[in-house]
């Protein structure tokens, strides 16, 4: 049974392709009978419980050497990929640890020591024109190829990592403690080493990958709307390797082509979601860039990102209620589609980018929970459904399991860093704007946003 005691200290795509399909087909899932126990936790208790639980992924189950985030943790096979570090998930992990310090969930001195170990590891890990790889060996710091040609720098994963580094820098920058001040300085040094402008190939667009063996052969442009907005913001904000505004305008915003005038369920879609004509993409597109980037009242010359993200969440909620495919279990309190583990046709575990045009009957808890800033009432109803009505079935050692289906009576007892990583930060942003304030008030971030033509009603520019 879950309790509110302090976390124990551990002793020991592209993003939509986050998991090797072959490896996961070989693993087994579990099928459980319906839960019988009903809990009566208050909303305040629920929020604290799920934040603490999600933090455990990055605290109790961190990669043992680097102290960064493991790509995955399988309770049914804990040794799988035990030394594979997720660069982007580690950025989310840094933000989770800051939330843990702020709320007293973990000892501050222990957290400072751990972050120090992590930053030292990152300093010595493989980098490719300043960018880290998608996967890093926690034992050696060497690149682990994500795919045959993806054995170099991953600019998007690097952006997610840097988002966390900047929050670390800002959190500790005024400390009088030498160890904390050193963390701030190290985080700043790491961020300034990323050669963002190299990843343009001299064009007005950013590219996702570069490899010392295959150069830019993967040829994947970053164009809106998806999870990659933060990459352009950081590239513009860089004091050392900045891009020009034209790269953002022509690359991300497609010279205004990002705009979408259609609606779903009476809610304006606002932007063109890549590959999801007339509807919305997986929910993580409105999470990953917005752990630090505050979308509330944030607009450029093309769209208002407060509307983009909130409407994305509202449409996803309405889709769940509408349930056009007739899946058993979709209700106003059981909803949310995003990229996560998934159920293959043979009942084994795979991976899929769940969204309205790829709805497989799989609910991913991170989708609705990480929507707290956008749909607080609907997300709370979902959280009650998980913890009060289905705790025994759907909650494990590090919070909600990654994915389940009531239709198939299926749940996979596994976790992914990029899914668990958005839960505690987004709840904290809804509660106190903690990470949003750290990131948005960073002088270089602010300058980068202004350079790109952004205005923020929340942060006064």
Walkthrough of the structure:
The protein is an alpha+beta fold. The protein contains 16 helices and 17 strands. It has a 3-stranded antiparallel beta sheet. Strands 1-16 form a two-stranded antiparallel ribbon. A two-stranded antiparallel sheet has the order 5-6. It is globular. Mean pLDDT is 93; it is low at 1-28.
Short description:
The chain has 16 helices and 17 strands. The protein has helices at residues 21-26, 43-59, 87-103, 108-124, 155-172, 178-192, 229-237, 245-252, 305-322, 365-369, 376-389, 391-394, 417-420, 423-432, 434-440, 443-451, and strands at 72-74, 84-86, 135-137, 143-144, 153-154, 209-210, 259-264, 267-271, 298-299, 339-343, 349-353, 395-396, 399-400, 403-405, 410-412, 414-416, 455-456.
